[in-house]
């Protein structure tokens, strides 16, 4: 098998995308990488090489004496203060991560943003954005970022954005493996550069609260079982991700964990406020399901509320099932 | 003649780090520690709705995200005088314990031990065995540890939706009530983790490990034993790691796993010189910015601001310098276990003080203790009772949240008005351990621990320096936040 090599760097990150990646696979992430012929040239949390040994690797790549298949960046790129990038220096090099990212990205066949920070700027961009943080090729939903909208990696692709805070471990390892296998073209990515294998779904798809959603039987407080869209801020009908079609840490997900989807795969998710309350206008949630006409949504919601079975209504505001489904005395049709 | 060298990027720590060493005749005479990343969370949080802290604060750190959540929760709870549902306390302890055990194992297997697989040790009798087991990325130990870690973190899927970065931790408790079958799943996961510890880490039952009560008992126990802990003890003896990274600063703990009554591990300050325990008064905590790239501000965190100044001439780190009653202190598993009175840890500290070997030993012993406690917490969940109490919040006033993260004492100081954040100050474990000098020129714990390290002709390449730094299990992303 032809080897595929990866340089992983951390800019203004929390390290959570690496922590998620390490959670991948029954055999462990290292075995999963090996299976697809992927070599980590260097990873800040995992490699033996340190200090000048590591810097020597970066210099070989920059000088073109070391091939680089994929540069993976975790964390936002800090451009401040005043465009110097000094809020995030790479230890031992007297140079900013901004410098290293701009130096190494053009050397890579593929550039991959692991997580919403590297993709869109993420949490460090929140509020006044005190460090002038941005993503690699987006600042929020605006194209540009640290590399510019026109950037294309050597293979001709824009930055591949594995958005999520943190992303599912599978999103990371499947993206890297797909690149190693070859044949990933521009049509594999959506308009924000996110791999469509997970971004062509909504976080809502497969939510265990679907029956409550259908009947608009809403939870009023956290920890209750009902749908969290009406009162508790859930954005799963507006956020991309197959979050409820694959388990997180076993069988978990945000909505199964009892709290709202905060749309962490979306550019600018950090600019929201009051994440756990639904913003409403005239009693109607401001954010309605993507591509659904508002009038239809309101009409259907009113209709389904009036048809809600007692069982569903009662269980929606309880933290466990208090009215079980009625059994039919063993008769089956 | 003094030679100054710079070590960085300092990897296999969480985040990035730079260390500058002054070397005289092959010995480190002085060290300066730099946190090279500043993201500005305290500035980002200011002015936002109070509860937004629960979304943003955990994202300070991907390796101790539950700790950051729980410190924010504790501070919000303190503002409003709230109590969590009993089940919520137990479930939060379980999730927190899962994260902390995962962190201790990640440190030992992925961050710390791979240094002993380096070629520089190829002449040592243990090198072949240790390199096969711990070589970075390739060693056999990680192949076994990663699936065990993933299994352990399934506790997050059950109790908190996912890890890292969960919103399950709330002032009133936790958001997911589990049922009869899920309690069994929890116990099954805890059992699997216990099996991994007993088989791979200790090669003995946890009961036997936890019965060890002195350095002599430990020496007898490990004689001829397999397992990765004994493997480490053999290396530690050969390399005299108990003489490396030695300091004698007070050891501090905020108390860990606040239970329905007392915390599992006690709060206090242990003096390794006098072997005395003192009460901890949060009013004694201050933060000095004399050598941080920060504008002057109040010393007390409840009154301080964070205002970066990259051009400050005296600055050399984004990290502020926290002090307890004016002194630097060491935090972490060693401090926690010494304060709590663990007889083996107290004996080890009495014999050789806080040092590289004892920090690693304390971390693994604590792992064993916590896994036993997890089983008990899971059994005590009352499946008929709520996990989350309705919380009537006022959203005005000041509060402090003091908890223990895997790496040591974590505090959030919060001030709210009209349910918005007026002030937010965070002092993380590695802020304590990797603090720069203060206004009196007193060096931080790592800076003190590096002084005296023999590096010979290797200078910046000295592996001894790597051992000292990593023995603290630094989390640099938390440090300056």
Automatic annotation (TrEMBL), chain A:
[4Fe-4S] cluster 2 binds at residues 204, 207, 227, 234. Residues 201-274 form the Cytochrome-c3 hydrogenase C-terminal domain. Signal peptide: none annotated. Residues 313-333 are annotated as: Disordered. GO terms for cellular component: [Ni-Fe] hydrogenase complex; cell envelope; ferredoxin hydrogenase complex; membrane. GO terms for molecular function: 3 iron, 4 sulfur cluster binding; 4 iron, 4 sulfur cluster binding; electron transfer activity; ferredoxin hydrogenase activity; hydrogenase (acceptor) activity; metal ion binding. Its EC number is 1.12.99.6. Its main location: other. The keyword Membrane applies. Its cofactor is [4Fe-4S] cluster; [3Fe-4S] cluster. It catalyses: H2 + A = AH2. Gene3D superfamilies: Cytochrome-c3 hydrogenase, C-terminal domain, NADH:ubiquinone oxidoreductase-like, 20kDa subunit. Keywords: 3Fe-4S, 4Fe-4S, Cell membrane, Iron, Iron-sulfur, Membrane, Metal-binding, Oxidoreductase, Signal. The keyword Repeat does not apply. It is an enzyme of class 1 (oxidoreductase). It is found in: Cell envelope. Residues 14-179 form the NADH:ubiquinone oxidoreductase-like 20kDa subunit domain. [3Fe-4S] cluster binds at residues 243, 261, 264. GO terms for biological process: anaerobic respiration. Belongs to the [NiFe]/[NiFeSe] hydrogenase small subunit family. Heterodimer of a large and a small subunit. This is hydrogenase (acceptor).
TrEMBL record, chain B:
Coiled coil: none annotated. Ni(2+) binds at residues 61, 64, 475. It is found in: Cell envelope. Keywords: Iron, Magnesium, Metal-binding, Nickel, Oxidoreductase. Gene3D superfamilies: Cytochrome-c3 Hydrogenase, chain B. Its main location: other. Mg(2+) binds at residues 42, 426, 481. Belongs to the [NiFe]/[NiFeSe] hydrogenase large subunit family. This is Nickel-dependent hydrogenase large subunit. Its cofactor is Fe cation; Ni(2+). GO terms for cellular component: cell envelope. Fe cation binds at residues 64, 478. GO terms for molecular function: ferredoxin hydrogenase activity; nickel cation binding. It holds the Pfam family NiFeSe_Hases.
